[in-house]
Amino acid sequence: MKSKIFVTDFDNYEKSIKRIFKALKIKEKIKEDKIIIKPNLTINKKPPTTTDVNCVKEIIKNILNLKIKSKIFIAEGSGGCDTLKAFEDLGYKELEKEFDVKIIDLNRAERVWLKNENAMVLKKIYFPKILLNSFLINVPVPKEHSSAIITNSLKNMFGIYLSKGYIAEWGILKSIGVIVSRNVFSRGWSKADLHVFGVHKSIYDLNIYKKPDLTICDARIGQKGNEINGIACKPKLNKIIASYDAVACDSYIAKIFGYDWKEIEYLRYCNNKIGSAEDYEIIHI
């Protein structure tokens, strides 16, 4: 069966996300007692570099309208700044006050060791425990990327990883009774290991440990040229895009940006293993 990608024009987040949820029929999909919403807050820069808080706000409202018992969390592990600063500067802390949701900094979250011999480079990772047995809604922003060519749902999973150097520094400080400050998490890129191991292979590996259950792509604008210092797409993409298949979603985003999915190494790795990069159906709603 072909993977389905739901595409709707953006008029405003309230109307567009509502149409997406109606098409997704998500209530019958959620069996877990935790729903994790994972935006792209790699740094504390405003959209389109990061996921618009208003997009996540409407996703929360639509989940609450389902009247299910699952607890909602918003989780991210920023790489370019302290995650808590990104949450504060980009308006995410306000969502805790407005709704019954909890903000989780994955760079500080409790972790457990996981192993997978099928991984290409990450045979063992220190995995955020909160993500175990959860329904993960990935809410990326589509951008060109200096290393990955395209960053969207699959690349957004870099946020779950914490580099060895950060783990060691944090562990040493805690072991000697020092209160861990924000500075520990604000120097350099906490995802640096992944660039050493290879971005494309790391993307594949992280998604075999935990792949998104649902991707809702905030394609209101889009960003060209670079993941951090790029420029907004002109014209704006003006879409909200959703799929239960993250690979299909990323393949479609690649096409929108003018790339064949076969040109992107991580999509070749993921195709027919995590999802389908070539066999999907576009449903316009």
Structure in words:
The protein is an alpha/beta fold. It has a single domain, classed as Rossmann fold, CATH 3.40.50.11440. It has 9 helices and 14 strands. The protein has helices spanning 13-24, 53-64, 83-89, 93-98, 164-175, 192-197, 199-209, 246-256, 265-270, and strands at residues 3-9, 34-39, 71-76, 101-105, 111-115, 124-128, 135-139, 143-145, 149-151, 214-219, 223-224, 231-232, 239-243, 280-284. It has an 8-stranded mixed beta sheet with strand order 4-3-2-7-10-13-1-14, with helices on both faces. A hairpin with a 6-residue loop joins strand 11 (223-224) and strand 12. The longest helix has 12 residues, at 13-24. The chain is globular and about 45 Å long. The two termini are 20 Å apart. The model is unreliable at 178-188 (pLDDT under 50).
Task: Compute the average pLDDT.
Answer: 91
The CATH architecture term is 3-Layer(aba) Sandwich
User: How many domains, as an integer?
Assistant: 1
Question: How would you classify the helix and strand content by structural class?
Answer: alpha/beta
Q: In this structure, how is the largest beta sheet organized?
A: 8 strands, mixed
User: Unreliable segments (pLDDT under 50, ≥5 consecutive)?
Assistant: 178-188
Give the strand line-up of the largest sheet: 4-3-2-7-10-13-1-14
Strand content: 15-25%
Discrete helix count: 9
Share of helix, binned: 25-40%
Alpha-carbon distance between the termini? 20 Å
